[in-house]
Amino acid sequence: MNMMKARLALLVLASMAVMAGCASTESLYAQYDELCPVEARVTSTGLVTVTGIAAGGGAGLMAGESRTQVWEPAVYFGFDQSQMAEAEVRRLDSNLAVLKQYPTLQVSVQAFTDEKGAASYNQKLAARRLDQVVQYLRDGGISNGRIKRVALGEELPILSNASNEQRVINRRVELMPLDAQSRPLVLRADFAGSGGDEFVPPAPVK
Q: Which domains occur in the chain, in start order?
């Protein structure tokens, strides 16, 4: 589970500096670090809460104002399912709110399955899961051009697929926030404070 938490954290929105009108290139990050501090706290269940402090204006923030938001690194699916359960829709709603608030953000969406079944079938299943997530984002007002997508099927499992508990984590669609040039945002997260190994799988798990 430690690898899972590290992977989750790596997919988390943690660079509010870009979105709040501060430095937007690597050469300026160091100069603006003290003006645009960003904190990311990993909870015991793997969620990451990001707090950005804007140095001045931008994205609806006043100078010095803090705003805490949650970016969900993935949504999960039941066995052989492409429809999102209500709990997973709520996860996706958190990301949708961030994307709507910061219109320059893009998002990378990658869809996966566990290894049960034929690889060709799993590729199609991953594509259906991808379509569900992308369509939900589009219905929520996110333009097609902001969404970078790929269905990878049973490739790149996080865990070994040896048990139901492991397979449910592999049945996922990952979401990574990108800047306006499609670059992954800078990560600052508290790995040491990531807490326990709790994970609540989506239902149904078969």
A: 2-178 (3.30.1330.60)
pLDDT tens across the length of the chain (206 residues): 444 444 444 444 334 333 444 434 344 334 334 434 445 555 554 455 555 533 333 445 554 555 567 788 899 999 999 999 999 999 999 999 989 988 888 999 999 999 999 999 999 999 999 999 999 999 999 999 999 999 999 998 888 888 888 888 899 999 998 888 888 875 555 566 665 656 666 766 55
The total of other beta-carbon atoms located within 10 Å of residue 142's CB is: 20
- Residue partners of 11: CB distance under 8 A and separation at least 6: 73, 74, 174, 175, 176
Token duo for residue 189: 């997260």
The full DSSP string for 132-169 is HHHHHHHHTT--GGGEEEEEEETSS-SS-S-SHHHHHH
User: Do residues 187 and 10 lie in contact, with contact meaning Cβ atoms separated by under 8 Å?
Assistant: yes
